[in-house]
Amino acid sequence: MKTMCCLCIGRRFVRRIVCMVDFGIPIGAGIAFGLGALGTGIAQSKIGAAGAGTIAEKPETFGLMIILVAIPETLVILGFVVASMIMIMLV
User: Which of 37, 40, 52, 69 is deepest in the core (most CB within 10 A)?
Assistant: First the structure.
């Protein structure tokens, strides 16, 4: 979607095409993916530290900790899917 605007410089009118939507789509895709990755990193750092302590005390909880560390990864996958869908809208 492109919008037209006219500028008046002195006595001349200059037409410019302003592509507000064109640069907003990749920025939105980057934000969707970047914030998802940032949130996942924060969550995994806390879960990983707690999981390392838990595994040191009870080695039988290893499988559970692997699952708990993998759960936040779904946020990155979701962010990637949303970013891909946003970029597909660009075409």
Answer: 40
